[in-house]
């Protein structure tokens, strides 16, 4: 991809140098320098044509409008990339903090719903106790990672409700598999 830009960069450098020389000629114009002025104007026109030809190679390149705003404000456009990376890092730390908060919380105390559901379905709760303690932490971490990006959409209590349902179905399916084998 750099090759595409090398040609454009070369043409832009030549064009800028031409404009600089043209400015010098115009600022100190002498009638004897008319031929040189005409030549520089022709170079400027051909330079614009060369830049236009480079456009065909770069038609699939998109530049964020914010980059042009940085340039208009006299700021270095590379600062845009730096600030984007800093924002992404800050957002990453925010999400990591949410994940850490969720994984540190202990939900092993909330067994009432499990017991009521198991009894309501006619299953022995003791069958699930050992599996629940092991699988709850694994499933919770996976579940949090999947839903953390949408945490602003779904309330935490809804997350917990969905998690409990998912874990219950998982344990029931595992128990049914064990019962079928036996």
From TrEMBL:
Family note: Belongs to the Mediator complex subunit 10 family.
PANTHER family: MEDIATOR OF RNA POLYMERASE II TRANSCRIPTION SUBUNIT 10
Taxonomic classification: Eukaryota, Metazoa, Chordata, Craniata, Vertebrata
Compartments, record wording: Nucleus
GO molecular function list: transcription coregulator activity
Key word Methyltransferase present: no
Role: Component of the Mediator complex, a coactivator involved in the regulated transcription of nearly all RNA polymerase II-dependent genes. Mediator functions as a bridge to convey information from gene-specific regulatory proteins to the basal RNA polymerase II transcription machinery. Mediator is recruited to promoters by direct interactions with regulatory proteins and serves as a scaffold for the assembly of a functional preinitiation complex with RNA polymerase II and the general transcription factors.
Main location: nucleus
InterPro entries (alphabetical): Mediator_Med10
The keyword Nucleus is annotated on this UniProt entry: yes
UniProt protein name: Mediator of RNA polymerase II transcription subunit 10
GO biological process: regulation of transcription by RNA polymerase II
Keywords: Activator, Nucleus, Transcription, Transcription regulation
Cellular-component GO terms for this entry: mediator complex
Subunit-structure text: Component of the Mediator complex.
């Amino acid at each position: 991809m750099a090759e595409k830009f090398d040609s454009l960069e070369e043409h832009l450098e030549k064009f800028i140098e031409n404009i600089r020389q043209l400015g010098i000629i115009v600022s100190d114009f002498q009638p004897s320098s008319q031929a040189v002025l005409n030549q520089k104007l022709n170079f400027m026109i051909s330079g614009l044509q060369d830049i236009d030809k480079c456009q065909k190679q770069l038609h699939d390149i998109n530049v964020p409008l914010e980059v042009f705003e940085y340039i208009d404000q006299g700021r270095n456009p590379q600062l845009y990339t730096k600030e984007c990376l800093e924002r992404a890092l800050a957002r990453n730390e925010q999400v990591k903090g949410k994940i850490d908060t969720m994984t540190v919380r202990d939900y092993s105390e909330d067994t009432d719903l499990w017991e009521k559901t198991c009894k309501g379905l006619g299953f022995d709760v003791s069958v699930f106790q050992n599996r629940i303690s092991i699988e709850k932490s694994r499933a919770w971490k996976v579940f949090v990672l999947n839903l953390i990006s949408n945490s602003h959409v779904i309330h935490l209590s809804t997350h917990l409700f969905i998690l409990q349902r998912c874990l219950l179905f998982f344990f029931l399916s595992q128990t049914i598999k064990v019962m079928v084998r036996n």
